[in-house]
Design a protein that fits this description.
Elements: H1 10-28, H2 31-38, E1 39-42, E2 46-49, E3 52-55, E4 65-70, H3 74-84, E5 90-97, E6 108-112, H4 119-135, E7 140-145, H5 149-152, H6 162-175, H7 179-187, E8 206-211, H8 234-243, H9 252-262, E9 279-283, H10 285-298, E10 302-310, H11 314-329, E11 335-341, H12 355-366, E12 373-379, E13 391-395, H13 398-404, H14 409-414, H15 418-425, E14 428-429, E15 440-446
Parallel strand pairs: 4-5, 4-7, 5-6, 7-8, 8-9, 10-11
Antiparallel strand pairs: 1-2, 2-3, 11-15, 12-13, 12-15, 13-14
Length: 456
């Protein structure tokens, strides 16, 4: 009698399960799936989202609906909306990151720079604003926002150049500022962020659909809040620069504008109430994290949430995550450790990588020698930092595999070059654009049993 095939090694099985869990998390945040389920109405009576009013009925037969927005997943969101608005005439303009373009019938989709805006960002935004001014009075408007909109929807304020904004963005990204701090600066250097679209939207005939990529799903931070009021001030923006010792490093025009704003010489951003344009959150990290837990349970793992809406520094959080995962590895039953959020990474080197890949590499160092555990840290948008990878797998043997290839993991971390290391070890996760963007997910799995080593 032929013997049954040998079971796969625990590491292979864990990696396959990690991939299934990540895919389930992405499906839960897929705007096309969500809108097919939750967008309801018709061309005569208007539209609702999850039972809440979204757009009113047309004033005249055939009154169009215009889609305007930006973000890495904005084209997927627009395509889902377009498909759901059966019988409606649809137009508009969407701005996405280079490489994230999708065809949306009736809607112009343009590409621009991210995470640092480029000339395409400015030119595309000028065209979007011109279209919005022309169309706002003759139709209903849906504003569509997803992560990345802050870098893609760009209209520098008077006296500020694109180069000024790009320099500030690069400094803030490198110093480890979180997204709320970055957006506080962006809103006060912009003519469109922080409520700048509100005057262009037809009163009572506009709504917003957003995919949240920020901690706490704060509407004022998603895409830097172009269609909602801004609670932050010029003074808050100055405090961010001072916190990171950037006041002397940013362009002089930036400091001049912020100080003029504090003195009252420049109008503050609109402080209109958030409900001025009704916003609806289509998907968030919460939805993906919940789906990840459900999939892990279906695969036979006891689930534990390490953290929701995680903020803080990559290295310290990865260390704590690894220690908890190692502890789960000493338990007899299979277990899954789940986390979601957006950590900050202080960049000191000139290598290639992103916060998820660096999280995986740091965690792998603290798991070195621990058997039968593995993890995946990845962005939900398909890009982690300026790389082609969404994130990386790692386990207790990752550092050893790197050393056998002549690589030094500690030097790699000092140079922020995690992508290069994981490319050599074959542990990158490359998905391409996913059509969504709900921050990052970290999933650790333990096969169960007694680990034969302690975390470092």
């Amino acid at each position: 009698m032929k013997a049954p095939p040998a079971p796969p090694p625990p590491s292979d099985r864990l990696r396959a399960d990690l991939l299934e869990i990540h895919r389930a998390a992405l499906r839960a945040a897929d705007p096309e799936r969500i809108l097919e389920r939750d967008l309801r109405g018709d061309a005569a009576s208007g539209w609702t989202f999850r039972g809440q009013p979204l757009l009113p009925p047309p004033r005249t037969k055939g009154e169009p609906i215009f889609l305007f927005g930006a973000g890495k997943a904005a084209a997927a969101l627009a395509r889902g909306v377009r498909r759901g608005l059966g019988g409606e005439a649809v137009g508009g303009r969407i701005i996405v990151k280079h490489g994230h373009r999708l065809e949306v019938p009736g809607v112009v989709v343009e590409e621009a720079g991210h995470p640092v805006p480029d000339a395409h960002s400015v030119a595309a935004t000028e065209r979007l604003l011109a279209d919005l001014r022309e169309s706002g009075g003759r139709g209903r408007v849906l504003v569509l926002l997803t992560g990345g909109a802050s870098a893609l929807l760009v209209a520098p304020a008077a006296g500020i150049t694109l180069e000024d904004k790009s320099r500030v963005s690069s400094l803030l990204l490198a110093c480890g500022a979180d997204i709320h701090e970055i957006n506080t600066i962006r809103k006060h250097l912009s003519a469109v962020k922080g409520g700048g679209l509100i005057p262009l939207l037809p009163p009572g005939r506009a709504g917003a659909l957003v995919i949240s990529d920020v901690i706490g799903d704060q509407l004022t931070s998603i895409g830097s809040g172009p269609a909602t009021g801004d609670p932050t001030t010029f003074g808050d923006a100055l405090e961010v620069l001072e916190k990171f010792d950037l006041a002397e490093r940013v362009p002089p025009a930036v400091i001049h504008r912020l100080r003029a704003g504090v003195a009252g010489a420049v109008p503050e951003t609109p402080d209109a109430p958030g409900e001025a344009v009704p916003h609806h959150i289509v998907a968030s990290n919460f939805h993906s994290l919940r789906a990840a837990g459900q999939e892990a349970a279906r695969l036979g793992y006891r689930t534990e949430v390490f953290g929701r809406d995680l903020a803080g520094e990559v290295h310290e959080t990865a260390r704590r995550f690894a220690h908890r995962l190692a502890a789960l590895g000493s338990e007899p039953a299979p277990a899954a450790l789940l986390a979601g959020g957006e950590l900050t990474l202080r960049v000191t080197g000139d290598g290639r990588g992103g916060r998820s890949q660096e999280f995986a590499l740091v965690a792998a160092g603290h798991l070195e020698g621990v058997s039968d555990v593995a993890l995946l840290a990845a962005g939900t948008d398909g890009t982690d930092g300026p790389t082609n990878a969404a994130g990386a797998f790692a386990d207790g043997g990752s550092w050893g595999r790197a050393r056998r290839r002549g690589l030094d993991p500690e030097a790699t971390l000092r140079n922020n070059d995690s992508w290069s290391l994981f490319r050599e070890t074959g542990e990158l996760l490359v998905t391409g654009p996913t059509g969504t963007n709900v921050m990052d997910l970290m999933v650790g799995l333990s096969a169960g049993g007694v680990s034969d080593a302690k975390p470092s």
